[in-house]
Amino acid sequence: MKRGMMRFGMSLAAALVMTCAVGAARAAAVNGFTETFSGSGTANWSGGSIHSNPGTGGVGGAGDGYLQLSNAFAGNFGTQNSGENYTGDWSAAGITQVSFYLRDVGADQPFAFHFLLTQGGSFGTTWQYITSIDPPTGQWQQYTVDLTSEANWTRVRGSDSLAAVLQSVSFAHFRHDLEPYFSNPDPIAGDIGIDSIRLGAVPEPTSLAACVALLSLPALRPRRRR
Ligand SMILES: [Ca+2]
Ligand SMILES: [Ca+2]
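ok -> structure tokens follow
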């Protein structure tokens, strides 16, 4: 091998190693990430409730999975995720809202379901979205959480601002919690489904419709070769 080629090969390898290293360090929440629970995995969501994925019956219908949480007996009811898809600097990523679908699966229970974010370890500052959700029984309903106003949230642990937590998220959670809100949730027995968790704004139906309309224009259709 010529010396020039060899040098080029070595610098290319070094560049690849550097790119991979930077890529690994940057693994964090990204605007637009959507967890659809395809297959039968639970995508790193964990907690005291029994976690399962039936592999069907999700927002996408037959063949689309979802995350199911179940408590056979009254106890803390919830799930959390500290995986790379949910952690890091949500502010820098431009994530201003979170949306998800919920469904009360099986028998109906009086849920007061909330979304929460934590900074630091298990005892770090935690903010809970005030809106309490009792999802419909047997059908999926989409909900949106606004991250831009602290007034929509209540701090259940710690002393940092919501803005500070959004700069270094360590956990995203869902849990059942009745008023008054503080660090400990309330017990309940039952089961619930979670699906299509999206970080970032939900695409507006109007813009989606506009895209479909644009793609249907003859000039923008891929030309067939003759
Ligand atoms: Ca799904
Ligand atoms: Ca249920």
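Confidence is low (pLDDT under 50) at residues 15-26.
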